[in-house]
Amino acid sequence: MNASRPEPKLGPNGRPVRPFVLPDTIGGRFRVWRFILYRRLVQLGVLLLFLGTAWWSWSLGGRPLLLGNLSSSLVLGVIPLADPFAVLQILATGHALDSQVLIGAAVVLLVYGVLGGRVWCSWVCPVNMVTDLAAWLRSRLGATDLFHIRRSVRYLVLVLALLLSALTGVAAFEWVSPISMLHRELIFGIGLGWTAVLGSFLFDLLVLKHGWCGHLCPLGAFYALVGRFAPLRIRFDAPTCTHCGECARVCPEPQVLNLREAAAAGLIRSGECTNCGRCITVCPEDTLHFYLRNPLASAGRSQSDSR
After folding, report:
1. Residue 170, Cβ neighbours under 10 Å: how many?
2. CA–CA separation, 103 and 110 (whole Å)
3. Are 86 and 221 in a shared domain?
4. C-alpha angle 273/279/284, rounded to 5°?
5. Which phi and psi (to 5°) does residue 57 adopt?
6. d(CA 109, CA 115)
7. Is residue 1 part of a domain?
8. What is the DSSP letter of 2?
9. Which one-letter DSSP state was computed for residue 5?
10. 61 in the Ramachandran plot: left (φ > 0), alpha (ψ -120 to 50) or beta?
11. Do 242 and 289 share a domain, yes or no?
12. Which one-letter DSSP state was computed for residue 254?
């Protein structure tokens, strides 16, 4: 008598739930890893532009390519760029800022407001490479969290950074930010950048999963607010989803994958999504895709729904 095979688990759409399987071919693996490879190219490319300009005087048409650092820089000696959160902290101190810095902050706000604020976190921030390494090692070591804190704590840290800036007269977060410290260390070779980065790495590896980026970093909180209404989103094709959970398993911000809300909206709405693309490449049903929505149409639909 032959034993009957167990019935496959079915998703809410009636289709069998399939696990993600890493392809054997190089092409298949590249397709799975493509976004992380693209992200590393962008992160390292930005660093290389800063390094090349500072160390080897890279220029184009006689103009320096990228002078400065992630807090304040100048592209080709013409286009100013400035970290909007750093600018907010300085304004909180009561100090006046040059109009060029304010324009630079507006340019950066516009760019990340379109791309989705936390694109900064996964595609540009150099510390992301460190915390991704910690997460990768953590999964292989089977480490568990020593304690739990809410992800909303990062918003409290954001407010605290602004309050301390106002009280002390200095940009509070910039003094302790592992992002700024690492970048200054790489570009100028001074400071305690490596110590701060090592602390972030060990915190993520041994204490709390995605501890720094996912729970504490106020810059990530700031860009989550900036990207809340951004056009660039992850589209969610609800009829094809079997709720296999593979997307949540790899997502550094799994709370954004509220599938009921995503099904109603047709996309991942949370500004806390980093648009890293990991969920897209592991979905067995090809349910998730990058998508550029019309923000005006979305606003009009939201107003209609609220009536």
Report:
1. 14
2. 11
3. yes
4. 155
5. 55, 40
6. 10
7. no
8. P
9. P
10. left
11. yes
12. G
Nearest CA among 272, 269, 278 for reference residue 233:
269
Query: Kind and range of the H or E element at 159?
Result: helix 153-168
Residue with tokens 């190089």: 26
**Which positions ≥6 away from 19 have C-beta within 8 Å?**
244, 246, 284
Residue 3 confidence (pLDDT): 54
Domain residues for the domain of 299 are 234-306
Give me the phi and psi of 306, to 5 degrees please.
-80, -10
Question: Which of 220, 171, 225 minimizes the C-alpha distance to 200?
Answer: 220
Q: Which residue type is seen at 221?
A: A
**pLDDT tens across 44-71, in order?**
999 999 999 999 999 999 999 999 989 9
Interval 236-293: pLDDT, tens: 999 999 999 999 999 999 999 999 999 999 999 999 999 999 999 999 999 999 999 8
Amino acid at 255: Q
Handedness of CA 277, 279, 283, 288 (dihedral sign): negative
148 & 168 share domain = yes
